[in-house]
Amino acid sequence: MKYENNLPQYNTNKKEQLSKEEQEEYEKIKETIIQQQINNKELKIIPQEINELINEKTSNTDKIINKLNDDLRGYGKIDVLLKDDNLEEIMIIGNNKPVYTYHRTKGMMITDIKLNENEIKQSINKIANYIQRKIDKQTPILDARLPDGSRVNATIPPITADGPTLTIRKFKKNQLTIFDLIRSNTFNTYLSAFLWVAIDGLNVRPSNTIIAGGTGSGKTTTLNTLSSFIPSNERIITIEDTLELQIPQEHLIRTETRPPNIENKGEINMDVLLKNTLRQRPDRIIIGEVRSNEAVTLFTALNTGHSGMGTLHANSTQETINRLLNPPMNVPQIMLNSLDFIIMQNRMYHPEKGPLRRITEVAEVVGIENNRVQLNKIFEYDFNTDKINYVAISSNALTQISKMKGISYKSLMNEIDQREKYLLKHSNNEKIDVYEAKKIINKYYHTSNF
Ligand SMILES: Nc1ncnc2c1ncn2[C@@H]1O[C@H](COP(=O)(O)OP(=O)(O)OP(=O)(O)O)[C@@H](O)[C@H]1O
Ligand SMILES: [Mg+2]
């Protein structure tokens, strides 16, 4: 059966074809280079050397060099997609099927690229070789990171029915900063200022926070940007399945899980890493994505005075709680008291504005009553006005901060207002990286009383 779809088309500018002579020349040069570098793991393409190899009569050296680069170093036909920073995701779904891509402003698109089984396998094997792992019938799944930081998942039959698949979450060269997210309306300034105070905790009570949402809703990006509110004097340890986070902090240890080897040995999972982390005296533990039994270890740590942040896959605040309480996470209900905020994030598609990412709710865990975790809504998104509103009367976490700091609740709210003004003043800072954004945040403390 054929499916009709009306997705926008992503056309790759088909590469200029090589002429017959150029093609012959290209084959010869490729052979020579492979012979020369047969023992080198990394093939180097040095234009001068190629120039020497090229027959002077052939005109277009650049064309040949480009093709060599793509063939020897790249990942095949999808290279052109990998180079486009406007694309978030590249999706190969099987043999001879169109490759899909998710565009930053246009959403899901269908490309004019199709790959046969061999071409997909070649791309996957290149990735597997690079990270020295195997993908075969016994281990038909590969999770990896490309040299540029992009995240990759590959599968081969029998677990995918229509051939090998490859999903690439491209690493954004310029990571979004809190100022970008304010400008694009993912956050507003008041919400950012509120979370700033909650997360830095005025050095007395940092809030523990989980960012929850659906696939690709922007959870990891939000976690990244909110981490710039962590005071610079803290020791941060991050735990991830594949390194993605970019935490702008000098004193930082980044850890990454290790899958089992070919003999099914040597696995180091999140829980093992987290337990080890607790022997390293972290001030702040950041877990890329909480998904399994490490949740209990995390909550044990939070209950014994550590501070933490992380993301979790769930579609509502209640679902977040349910996922934490049930297998495979199995966090004892009483432990959820140590969680302060659940930040819900959503990706929506707006017919005119394209894909929108919004914080749709911030809820505070206020306690456990009648055997249920009680939540208090602090911020709520209004779909009609596309605004996120402060809907709480007060916040427990802020009350605690004001008590421990010995200041009134009102002066704490004033501090949020001050920080909001500061963020607003700087929100037109475009094209700065997360490190520069952090510097701006740090500068605030020179003038603040806190
Ligand atoms: N607020 C935002 N505005 C615009 N683009 C965003 C925003 N947040 C994230 N993105 C982009 O969306 C893509 C997915 O973001 P991210 O990895 O943060 O999502 P995620 O929810 O963590 O995904 P996953 O469910 O796979 O873990 C990235 O390319 C990122 O650059
Ligand atoms: Mg993520």
List the helices and strands and how they pair.
Blueprint: E1 9-10, H1 20-36, H2 47-53, H3 61-73, H4 79-82, E2 87-92, E3 98-103, E4 107-114, H5 117-130, E5 141-145, E6 151-155, E7 165-169, H6 178-183, H7 189-200, E8 209-213, H8 219-226, E9 236-240, E10 252-256, H9 270-277, E11 284-287, H10 294-303, E12 307-313, H11 317-325, E13 341-350, E14 354-369, E15 372-382, E16 387-390, H12 396-405, H13 409-426, H14 434-447
Parallel strand pairs: 1-4, 8-12, 8-13, 9-10, 9-11, 11-12
Antiparallel strand pairs: 2-3, 2-7, 3-4, 5-6, 6-7, 13-14, 14-15, 15-16
Helix pairs in contact: 7-13, 9-10
The structure holds adenosine-5'-triphosphate (ATP) and magnesium ion.
Adenosine-5'-triphosphate binds next to helix 8.
> Number of helix segments?
14
Give the CA-based shape. elongated
- Kindly provide the radius of gyration, computed on alpha-carbon positions and rounded to a whole number of angstroms: 25 Å
Number of domains: 3
- Looking at CATH, the homologous superfamily of the largest domain is P-loop containing nucleotide triphosphate hydrolases
SS elements, strand count: 16
CATH architecture of the largest domain: 3-Layer(aba) Sandwich
Low-confidence stretches: none
